[in-house]
Write a structure and sequence with these properties.
- The protein has about 775 residues and is an alpha+beta fold.
- Helices cover about 30% and strands about 25% of the residues.
- It contains 19 helices and 29 strands.
- α9 links the parallel β14 and β15.
- α10 crosses α11, α14 crosses α15 and α17 packs across α18.
- The longest helix has 28 residues.
- The radius of gyration is 28 Å and the shape is globular.
Length: about 775
């Protein structure tokens, strides 16, 4: 969408730069660690050095004697708040093992907090931790789903019966019968490794208690401040109104891990209340590497049945999901099970999932949230079908894609929100064809054949995907005319760098009919708006956007009604010119926004309000979608692989993207391209390896390969827009589309390049070592 297509005076659809950028680029952003809390104490957490161990004894005598140390609390000292942190997404069959804020007796992963030191500075607190003596009984550790499912193997939790947290299944049709009768059946096993969010800013919590009011204020780098407040209200047994959670306006990324609720978020405010002093804790990078929640890993054993034309008849997928030491939520495996069918006609589906407890940091959502694994499996098998039948991979996709005239399309299984999986809108064939055209598909195939004769290995990878987004239950907005004559839009959702201050000002401007210059946006403060859910799952534009538009339209009505009374006319005769409400556009017959506020918000003490004026110009709205919307896209990669070194060179990459109507094309481009950088990391670099004892082997960026600008290639990006019928703005999510299909696309391209060598790519990330191993294994099989 270009500016020339946007009607004059309309803000939605304009390619506007972010309001936030100037302060961030000039070093004037305010992050949690910049928070100036006079006389604040510093906290440091002592963490388990073992993947699984019991605490036999704890002695902090020497630590407490160190000058500057104020207090040391072990898990045993916090029994009044040792209450389970509830999983964000549950299931009736879940065997939930309680995740406590700071376990007093048994520890279940390396990095789990067991004590907190409070001191006058972080330096003193860190020194004091070295003086604490803890005697452990080290227990056998479970470091993979394979070990978790071993008969008579070790248990992740002592005294438990099994490591299986939950068994989930999804089905449509009769997959067993269809596979038995299919003319062709292929089977394979795929593995997708763990990966983290790795935000620029790590997690952090600061808290201050006001004894006079009994209220605690908490600054938290969370993606969901209202969710954090609700959890704290239950644990502390305090009224929600006595707990204020503020997510700072400037946060160095979230990507999913900050949407979860951690023990540190319980401990720090509790300490502040106990000591009567402000307390601050900011996670260091080493802590972030081992204690912030990750996503994946998953093993998929998949069977596909198809006819001789390459049309899918059945898919069966048996999944092992690493839940980590606790269940922080079942959203990731639930999403995986519903994403496997993708954008294709699959008449018979059978998906079985075993989520397993292991002695590793708990897993939850990271950008993509279970979808990259499912897309990896389906897209790899689409390529295998093409190879088996001697067909072109693009043609097999054409023959199986759901068509544009088939929406709403019912898949036959359920989505994570409990509703039948129903795609609302889309045009998958147009996305595929647009991507093929821009990658130069026919020319690339010709070049591939030519280079193979020269002993060079060029490959073309394709992926088409869908993404459930815009999830409920609701999101809200409040709009108020301030006494300074400005419009204040307040959102419960906490921005994580997406540009909320810009996008929601654009929406409000259109709803009110007022220039953006007079509109401010504030986010992520539970004291400003009573109810909210949070920023996660590519949901905010599709839930908060309609709420802002509705509240803005209400605000327009309130402003014009108030102005019409003061101007002595009908509201239909009034419109805005700058910050003035004018009769027929005449500035000589106008009242300013500030005058409206003085009349309706302030009034005159003891004087009756003018007849027809309603006091307090404030509106609010909450929007609840009936079900998830579905963004979609297609990726294509042209890569060259060196079989001697396993090096991958991405020659060209194209992304086709559909997130419904686009509010701000510049920001959507940024979201997709930023997501693509994350996807390239998942595809080729990021791998937090654990040894057999559950010890993390990648605890710094010397060991964990995180992509930089050097590794991310240029991308050609195009959009189509199929509006969602599920919300009045016709929007869908955009934050994860660049990430989800990237591992599958790169894997398909690498295997396509190495087809003459018959190498198989079954694991992500696709590293040089794995490529060489695949080539060697293929050669051995041929011998």
């Amino acid at each position: 969408m270009s500016d020339t297509l946007v009607p004059e005076g309309t803000m939605i659809g304009r390619r506007l730069e972010r309001r936030e950028d100037e302060r961030l680029l000039t070093g004037h952003g305010g992050y949690l660690d910049d928070l100036d809390l006079p006389d604040a104490l510093a906290a440091a957490f002592l963490r388990s050095p073992h993947a699984h161990a019991k605490i036999l004894s704890f002695d902090a005598t020497e630590a407490l004697a160190l000058p500057g140390v104020i207090a040391v609390f072990s898990g045993a000292d916090l029994m009044e708040i040792q209450k389970p942190l509830a999983p964000k997404v549950q299931h009736p069959q879940l065997r939930d093992y309680p995740r406590l804020p700071m376990p007093p007796a048994e520890l279940h992963y390396v990095g789990e907090p067991l004590a907190v030191v409070i001191a006058e500075s972080r330096y003193i607190a860190e020194d004091a931790m070295e003086l604490i003596e803890v005697d452990f009984e080290v227990l056998p550790a479970v470091a993979s789903t394979a070990v978790a499912l071993q008969e008579n193997g070790p248990l992740a939790h002592s005294g438990d019966e099994t490591n299986v947290a939950v068994l989930l299944s999804q089905s449509a049709g009769d997959a067993a019968k269809a596979l038995a009768e299919a003319p062709n059946v292929l089977s394979d096993e795929f593995f997708v490794m763990r990966g983290g969010g790795h935000s620029m800013e790590t997690r952090g919590v600061a808290a201050r208690f006001e004894a006079a009011t009994g209220q605690v204020t908490i600054w938290d780098t969370t993606q969901a401040p209202h969710y954090a407040r609700q959890q704290l209200s239950v644990i502390y047994e305090m009224a929600e109104d006595d707990i204020r959670v503020i997510a700072p306006a400037d946060v160095g990324g979230g990507f999913g891990p900050k949407a979860q609720f951690y023990g540190e978020e319980v401990v720090i405010p509790w300490v502040a209340m106990k000591l009567g002093r402000a307390v601050k804790w900011v996670e260091d990078r080493q802590e972030n590497m081992v204690t912030s929640m990750m996503e994946r890993s998953q093993t998929h054993r998949v069977d596909v049945g198809f006819d001789n034309d390459g049309r899918l008849l059945a898919v069966k997928d048996v999944i092992e999901h690493d839940q980590g030491a606790y269940c922080a939520g079942l959203q990731v495996p639930s999403i995986t099970t519903s994403t496997v069918p993708g954008p294709y006609h699959v008449p018979n589906i059978a998906i079985e999932l075993r989520a397993c407890y292991t002695n590793m940091v708990p897993t939850s959502s990271v950008r993509g949230a279970g979808r990259p694994q499912a897309v990896f499996v389906m897209e790899r098998m689409i390529d295998r079908i093409a190879e088996h039948l001697g067909l072109d991979p693009a043609e097999v996709r054409r023959r199986n894609l759901i068509q544009a005239d088939e929406f709403p399309y019912k898949v036959g299984i359920m989505f994570r929100d409990g509703s039948p999986l129903t795609y609302d809108s889309g045009d998958f064939p147009t996305l595929l064809e647009g991507t093929l055209e821009r990658i130069g598909y026919d020319e690339a195939r010709a070049l591939q054949a030519k280079l193979r004769q020269e002993g060079r290995y060029l490959g073309i990878g394709l992926s088409v995907y869908i993404e459930g987004c815009g999830l409920g239950p609701y999101e809200g907005a409040k709009i108020r005319l301030t006494n300074k004559g400005r419009i204040l839009v307040t959102l419960a959702a906490a921005g994580q760098g997406q540009g909320y201050e810009t996008v929601y000002a654009q929406i409000a401007a259109d709803g009110i009919g007022l220039d953006m210059d007079y509109i401010e946006v504030k986010t992520g403060d539970t004291a400003r708006i009573p109810f909210g859910q949070g920023t996660f799952a590519s949901r905010i534009t599709a839930t908060c956007g309609p709420a802002v538009m509705d509240a803005a339209k209400q605000m327009r009505e309130r402003l014009l009604d108030t102005a019409s009374v003061l101007l002595g006319c009908d509201a239909s005769e009034v419109d805005f010119v700058g910050d003035k409400a004018c009769l027929g556009g005449d500035l000589e017959k106008s009242v300013s926004l500030q005058q409206l506020a003085q009349t309706a918000n302030i009034g005159k003490h003891g004087i009756t309000m003018p007849r027809g004026i309603k006091a307090g110009i404030e509106t609010s709205s909450y929007f609840s979608p009936e079900r998830a919307a579905y963004a979609s896209g297609a990726h294509a990669a042209l890569v060259e692989v060196d079989p001697e070194t396993g090096e991958i060179e991405i020659v060209k990459y194209v992304i086709g993207h559909d997130c419904g109507n686009v509010i701000n094309p510049l920001l959507v481009d940024g979201q997709v391209l930023g997501g693509f950088a994350h996807g390239i990391g998942n595809a080729m670099y990021e791998e937090p390896v654990y040894d057999v004892e559950g010890q993390p082997q990648a605890t710094s960026y010397l060991d964990y390969a995180l992509v930089s600008a050097t590794e991310v290639p240029p991308v050609e990006l195009f959009h189509i827009q199929t509006p969602s019928p599920l919300n009045p703005l016709g929007v869908k999510g955009a934050g994860e589309g660049g990430t989800i299909p990237a591992p599958a696309t790169i894997a398909n391209a690498v295997e396509d390049a190495l087809r003459p060598l018959r190498a198989r790519i079954t694991r992500a990330p696709i590293t040089p070592a794995r490529i060489v191993d695949a080539i060697v294994a293929a050669a051995a099989d041929q011998d």
